[in-house]
Amino acid sequence: MGLGAIISSALEAARIATESLQADVIHEARLDQDVLGAPDYADPVSRPALVQEGRQQLHTNDGRLVTVQAIVSFFPEFEGAAPPGIGALDRITLPSGRTGPIVEIPEVLVNPATNAPYVRTVWLG
């Protein structure tokens, strides 16, 4: 068993162990903008995620200091899958109703089998 398979198995166990802690968040992928320049989003999709709300300051990958209102982490929805793709212009709405700009999608360890992160995490401003 290679290192990638070991990490995938451990994360699948973590996903299962944290199911009761995960909340359903709404993800709307940014498509484009309408004729007036307002953002146009895809239909909302409910996704389970670990949500940590609370104001904190973090350093982005490029060294900027940003204030973050929430950290949201998405596991693959089933073993062997990639976590959902999230773009910097997408909209995430938490169960509390909080939404905000995505200020960072931190670089993480990539699964060589899926060419996607093992876990996708986003920071909401």
Tell me the layout of helices and strands.
Elements: H1 3-17, E1 23-28, E2 30-33, E3 39-41, E4 45-59, E5 65-74, E6 91-93, E7 102-104, E8 110-111, E9 116-117, E10 120-124
Antiparallel strand pairs: 1-4, 1-6, 2-3, 4-5, 5-10, 7-10, 8-9
Protein described:
The strands form three sheets. Strands 6-1-4-5-10-7 form a six-stranded antiparallel beta sheet, with no helix packed on it. With 125 residues, it is mainly β. The longest helix has 15 residues, at 3-17. The model has no long low-confidence stretch (mean pLDDT 89). It has one helix at 3-17; strands at residues 23-28, 30-33, 39-41, 45-59, 65-74, 91-93, 102-104, 110-111, 116-117, 120-124. The protein has a single domain (3-124), classed as Thrombin, subunit H. A hairpin with a 5-residue loop joins strand 4 (45-59) and strand 5 (65-74). Helix content is 12%, strand content 42%.
